[in-house]
Amino acid sequence: MKNTFGTSVCVTLFGESHGKYIGATLDGIAPGIEIDEAYISDSLAKRRGDADVSTSRSETDEFIIVSGAYDGKTTGTPLTVLIPNSDVKPGDYTYGTARPSHADFTGFSKYHGYEDYRGGGHFSGRLTAALVAVGAIVRRALMNKNIFVGTHILQCGEAFDRVFDRFDEDISALAGMTFPVLDSSAAESVRAEIIASREASDSIGGVLQTAVIGVPAGIGEPWFDTLEGQIAHAVFSIPAVKGVEFGAGFALGFMHGSEANDAMRMVGGRVETVTNMSGGICGGISNGMPIIFQSAFKPTPSIGKPQNTVNFINGTDADMMISGRHDPAVVCRAAPVIDAMTAIVIADVMAQRYGTDWLA
Amino acid sequence: MKNTFGTSVCVTLFGESHGKYIGATLDGIAPGIEIDEAYISDSLAKRRGDADVSTSRSETDEFIIVSGAYDGKTTGTPLTVLIPNSDVKPGDYTYGTARPSHADFTGFSKYHGYEDYRGGGHFSGRLTAALVAVGAIVRRALMNKNIFVGTHILQCGEAFDRVFDRFDEDISALAGMTFPVLDSSAAESVRAEIIASREASDSIGGVLQTAVIGVPAGIGEPWFDTLEGQIAHAVFSIPAVKGVEFGAGFALGFMHGSEANDAMRMVGGRVETVTNMSGGICGGISNGMPIIFQSAFKPTPSIGKPQNTVNFINGTDADMMISGRHDPAVVCRAAPVIDAMTAIVIADVMAQRYGTDWLA
Amino acid sequence: MKNTFGTSVCVTLFGESHGKYIGATLDGIAPGIEIDEAYISDSLAKRRGDADVSTSRSETDEFIIVSGAYDGKTTGTPLTVLIPNSDVKPGDYTYGTARPSHADFTGFSKYHGYEDYRGGGHFSGRLTAALVAVGAIVRRALMNKNIFVGTHILQCGEAFDRVFDRFDEDISALAGMTFPVLDSSAAESVRAEIIASREASDSIGGVLQTAVIGVPAGIGEPWFDTLEGQIAHAVFSIPAVKGVEFGAGFALGFMHGSEANDAMRMVGGRVETVTNMSGGICGGISNGMPIIFQSAFKPTPSIGKPQNTVNFINGTDADMMISGRHDPAVVCRAAPVIDAMTAIVIADVMAQRYGTDWLA
Amino acid sequence: MKNTFGTSVCVTLFGESHGKYIGATLDGIAPGIEIDEAYISDSLAKRRGDADVSTSRSETDEFIIVSGAYDGKTTGTPLTVLIPNSDVKPGDYTYGTARPSHADFTGFSKYHGYEDYRGGGHFSGRLTAALVAVGAIVRRALMNKNIFVGTHILQCGEAFDRVFDRFDEDISALAGMTFPVLDSSAAESVRAEIIASREASDSIGGVLQTAVIGVPAGIGEPWFDTLEGQIAHAVFSIPAVKGVEFGAGFALGFMHGSEANDAMRMVGGRVETVTNMSGGICGGISNGMPIIFQSAFKPTPSIGKPQNTVNFINGTDADMMISGRHDPAVVCRAAPVIDAMTAIVIADVMAQRYGTDWLA
Fold it and tell me: Which of C8, C77, C222 lies closest to A352 in CB terms?
């Protein structure tokens, strides 16, 4: 299905970095959901990031909802959001010399040189703005169903944030931050890592941690469409994500069962687990605890250092030096994108289980 | 789509641990592929594992191909494999007390108590035998197209194997092993970890590393159906997997771009990368280098120690002690399952790109 | 997706005429549905048809439910039914001379000669037995939700049955018939057409009419997944169907809007239409009236007359005479197959709308 | 999947009659296909129809390709076309009184009153302009692969056109017509039927016949995704279609096998059928002959006569008289829409079989 994702609630994404518009179509959304335009704008602003650590192109991200909305509410028909590309530089773009660890060569291999390569084209992180816009509609509606999603920078280079602790308070606090870090001292060290990387004409990777609270037990499938599989499938489409783990994730490889098993207790008439090493999912199905996952982001591949590469048109080795200013870290702008994709997946799995009107 | 996975080549899985048969249907497979029954048997034997570290029930895994094959070759129509459940103990199965970190409570939450809970029912790792059987047909056919898949135990507790080095030789060596470890001294330490866990009535987690060689550049999609997303979606349906990372994965969170970027060079007229931090995938699309990913497995949740839990029928706290012998580690039996799922995904993405007859 | 159909409730079909088993896997079925084996057997008996007008091979259609059922109820996991092929004649089957209007040549074109051609192989109407078996489970469950499906022979050659009139009584009457004709005098004329065809070593086509009552208004989609499109997609997979029309169907081509429009009235607090030219569907969505459609079946292509054809292996013209006894008409055995496919589609669209537990 | 259709080549449709834009996204299209804007414009002009028998709103159908194209060619990424709604009358739209045989009541039943009801909203035939635009890109590309699609008005009320005879010449002739009728005398009688209906403040139904030439043998699937099922699924989403039949279709119900079977002969080294009662498809798979199907259209439900209906908000009977001018027949404007949907399906099934680059 390529650029469409989802079963009951689904999203189609289109656009290129230097095209007229980027956009996304949200389908299967319940009718009657209020569209909170301020919330969309705020989500887009969070994605543009914090000025001192982001050097993204200057976009206002004006969005236009061209279908599926009437009188401020969803109609239940496909809802398309367009975002104009205003800050497009017509200048010269060279083609053929692959930027290492970018999609230049793989794009050429797939599209045979017909791809719109300007500014990364269809591969550009710019497209995530459209995901954030439609995701914000879904995420806002989920809040009315007492489902909340939040993401913070868990790690960036050698700087670490604390993990989620009191989920509702932490998610609530994150909602107000442009630079999403739970521990304010960690905010300083993360910021320092990013600035140091930029000053070294380099970039830095990181890990984001996401929590979803309010999903009842019993959501997901035992095989193939496991909740982990559906979330990971969605999250891996965010540029630069190279790993997804749930609960204790890769650390489970070091653990014994007696450490990794989540003991269970009745709390207020409800089944809870004492720990949450499983990240809220057992056998592919939610257990009613917070769903927790971490996403690993590679460092931005655009760096201001000389690199060895190839010219794939000529079939020759080449050297390259990427000029201009670039985001030194994806992590500080990726949180709203993960939140958006996560919200869409959660709305989808809930609608699969409870029907298409569920979200309204 | 629940228990069906794939677009062009797809697999449907069915069965319960204590039903008459488990089985899988492979659809979209090209006609004329030779069915190598010895290879299927050998793959099933590898999944049953090594006697001294596996204590799985005694199954012979006789398989019956009931459709989609004629005269020893695939016909191109759905190919269904059945595997009888021979070693089913009719004995008493209790219901209601959740085994911690098993799917007992999530299964109840989803299926409302109608699930066949005996021996884990539909959640049982037993079903992976059917995946291995159909996956072996696909994997064997991929070899004829010079695509090879191999998986080894990278880590188990504190024991570590070396990473892939010379891919063709390593994959070839793994094909002959029931206990898939690249470094023979590591084999000892991994085995020691598993045996120590068993002797402590405990279990142990681990990480598997998988490589695929021979996939050309240009396979995958930039959004949603990224190669990472499709592989991860498949791998997360294997019981106990809680993390999937590609290339350097979570370690990228510590790296600078100058360390993480894969420099490129022309080698023998072909674009290659000098390092492979990206795991053979950029922008969701293969770059022609080996595809490398790691899968994190949690420790087997069945352990011989007292555990706190609940009875979800009564809504009461409970204590439990799981008796009987259990696999102390999933990792030593999971490699052929990952190989099978990986082979199915690779065949699918290749057939999407090159057409349904491609595999023949 | 080839041999899997459906979104929320879906079915996978496998098998060949002369294989060990044919079978079908029903996925997405709600847990806790009682499995009425007598109803399944009865549905299979109806499909075997009436002895004097059907000359199908002698099959007992013993069915085995190998997964997805426990204690007489669905578990909610994939439910696979196997039906052994008992009456398989090992004899000689020739290959290469195409039976006109059969799938011999098209099968060869698709499967390159690897198809299991014996007895029609995967194309055989025999496979519909598996659809009837799983469809019977769904159809029986729909009854508990007050949704009823019924099909009768509307036309066969020059013989005509009356159309549906009092839907509940008519559907109820059809439930008791092996030869499904509403007007008993029509039964005679239809039977006479069939017998006359057989005596002339020929075959005869026909039209079946299907009604579904109890589907509420608001089910379906405005584009692509219209209710008509989903039903037609399913019905066209029944061998020999060459046309599907809803309500007045092709007759609407002769009508004016003033004749074709269904006037509306409030009846007992409920919106009803006075006529039902639209077949219960407007804009792709159900209006709460009976859903009515007709399916056109071509005559059985196996006839006892000499025919001109080709040998597609040799690339030469050929003459052929199909010997043996064959069903002179598909229509008298197809009704339960249409009922089964219709039930599956209705369960699917209801589950898409109301969630996966809806049918329970 | 609702408003997305297709497997390898797929289309997503969005918009409302009175929204800012309608649009469609074409995904899975091969890179490097030339975009012939004049051909798109011409296709849109054909859809606007002939002035003397169409009274559609005055739209110029300016289209904007906002993604997936670069330098006049497809890039292989999702291609979105927007068409502004210029002739939108802000005036008063009443809500609650259902126009008989329109989707007013079914839309309300599905969308609970949140639908944008102005001018038919998302149900409006207006949206077919977007399908025609993207379909024209596909259809034009198919021509380069020697696959041609053409549709004519076979019947309208009591007026009949001749059936396809010399397919290449007929399709070529249709390409130049705005009023697509093969026999010029039939053009007069069809036109007369339409004008008479309009003068009687009424409307008239009709049947369109479509042919596709150049599709090789072996395309389609034996079950579920039969070529008939995939085409019918697509065609039924065109507003007002109530029946689809292939080859002799419903007439087969009157035929004997000896009349309905298509004898086969070798012609120029190629397998051909002497007749084409099967419409080019056997067993769900193409046989290399022209694919022929007929689509039944109901009369336009908007007529200038008093009608009995209901107000579904109040739950009361109501009388209504639809004022304004309306198309008295859909048939004279529907041909390019059928051509567009057919082209998309053919491109999809060919790409499924031969790979995603096939169309380039």
Answer: C8
